[in-house]
């Protein structure tokens, strides 16, 4: 059933896209992301940030790019990287990508790489579980529609005999 919700969401969103999407990655993956200046939590990289396409023109620079608040990445080892501000050059409803790179000279890079591998394994398990659930949903829907199509016709005739109605079906 989740695929039906996803399909409807895509249909609604693609009909009137009025936002820009920024995909924020980290290298290595798995950094905890916050917005510079506000400290608002974005999530664990990779993460998506959305901007109202009607408001972005208020933040245009002389070169025609949109200037938005940047991000700070925090890795398990304690390493941090700041990318501020972010320039989005293109459409106010475009798709953009940035990557925050960890300084390799900061200690404990192995911890961050190990965490990235664990995160990758977890995401693979989640993807596999979603695939199994989607297959089960598809089988359920297929079974429902196949039973709907295989109904047999029933012909009934009713007769009035005195004060009683008698119905015969074949």
Describe this structure in words.
With 170 residues, the protein is of the alpha+beta class. It has a domain at 17-129. The protein has helices spanning 2-15, 109-149; strands at residues 19-27, 32-35, 41-44, 47-52, 66-68, 71-74, 80-83, 86-88, 95-101, 156-161, 164-169. The relative contact order is 0.15. The mean pLDDT is 88.
Summarize the structure.
This protein is an alpha+beta fold.
Mean pLDDT: 88
**What characterizes the major β-sheet?**
4 strands, antiparallel
The total of beta strands comes to 11
**Annotation field: number of helices:** 2
Structural class: alpha+beta
Q: Which range best describes the helical content: under 10%, 10-25%, 25-40%, 40-55%, 55-70% or over 70%?
A: 25-40%
**N-end to C-end Cα span:** 37 Å
Report the principal-axis shape. elongated
The share of residues in extended strands comes to: 25-35%
Secondary-structure element order, as H and E?
A: HEEEEEEEEEHEE
Q: What's the Cα radius of gyration?
A: 28 Å
Strand order of the largest sheet: 3-2-6-7
Q: Low-confidence stretches at least 5 residues in length (pLDDT < 50)?
A: none
